[in-house]
Design goal:
11 helices; Beta-Lactamase; 2 domains; Arc Repressor Mutant, subunit A; disordered N terminus
Length: 284
């Protein structure tokens, strides 16, 4: 009886790092999906997939038929020209996975690391009816606490998260938001003309991050960058905020790289592309 059960048990591989109970056949199926994904819309041939996996064509074909039956793979063509592409079941599961994960839930662990690295308060915000709304925050150590209540609407034209989110919108949509909300002056450095702000948003889109240089509050500076989902849509933005140092010009680029790295990390956890890839998808 034990021998009979053993023959029907899936093969289990013990990893070098001590992790156990990895199902080898399932691992090969997942590796196969990764290979097919890498081939893009052109798909992959059976022969190429078998070679890449170091499997026989018969074993590879059996895995493909299982994935086909469940909709995780689709095939086009016939015979030697038959190719395999990702199936729509993956899109359905992807939508469910993203729907089960809140933006703040994903972002907060990354923001904690960002605050630890930068020494500044970090925030994550969404665009709600044109306003920037903070949905998560990690305060920097120390006594200073910035007025950044969760859920409060902020003017988008004078905050780093707001400008980052506006820069990710089509130009006409961003203009419509700004005309509706207005460009009220918060400090002497606030940009209050539509033309000047659109130029600033173009610069933001080009370099990938937004800057609030004492535009919302005197003596306070922020740097923000967008977060993208799997469709390359900007679903939020993160930022770091702190008192503007004397060496701000020299520190700005260092902080920007920290913010960009963190934004990319969150985007990938949401199934989205990195910032550069998202930008090329929108422009291409």
């Amino acid at each position: 009886m034990a021998d009979t059960l053993a023959r029907h048990m899936p093969k289990v591989a013990e990893a070098a790092d001590g992790q156990r109970y990895r199902v080898q056949s399932l691992g090969r199926a997942l590796d196969l999906l990764e290979l097919i994904a890498a081939r893009g819309k052109d798909g992959a041939r059976l022969t190429d997939l078998a070679t890449a996996l170091s499997l026989s064509k018969a074993a590879t074909y059996a895995i493909l038929q299982t994935l086909l039956a469940h909709g995780f793979v689709a095939d086009v063509g016939a015979g030697a020209s038959r190719r395999y592409r990702l199936g729509l079941s993956l899109a359905r599961l992807g939508d469910l996975a993203v729907g089960n994960i809140g933006l703040a839930e994903v972002a907060l662990p990354v923001l904690r690391a960002l605050t630890a690295d930068s020494g500044l308060t970090s925030r994550v915000a969404i665009l709600d009816e044109g306003y920037a709304v903070v949905v998560g925050r990690v305060d920097a150590p120390g006594a200073i606490r910035f007025d950044a209540a969760l859920g409060r609407r902020e003017l988008p034209h004078c905050s780093a998260v707001g400008k980052a989110l506006l820069a990710a919108q089509p130009a006409e949509e961003a203009k419509a938001i700004l005309r509706r909300i207005g460009l009220s002056r918060r400090t002497p450095k606030t940009i209050t003309t539509l033309g000047a702000l659109m130029s600033e948003l173009a610069k933001t889109a080009h370099r990938g991050y937004a800057v609030d240089d004492e535009e919302d509050t005197e003596g306070v500076a922020c740097i923000g960058a967008c977060i993208f989902d799997r469709t390359a849509k900007a679903v939020g933005a993160i930022s770091v905020t702190g008192l503007k140092p004397r060496n701000w010009e020299g520190r700005q680029e260092v902080l920007a790289q920290l913010v960009l790295r963190s934004a990319d990390q969150i985007s990938r956890q949401l199934g989205g592309p990195a910032l550069r890839e998202a930008r090329s998808m929108r422009l291409g």
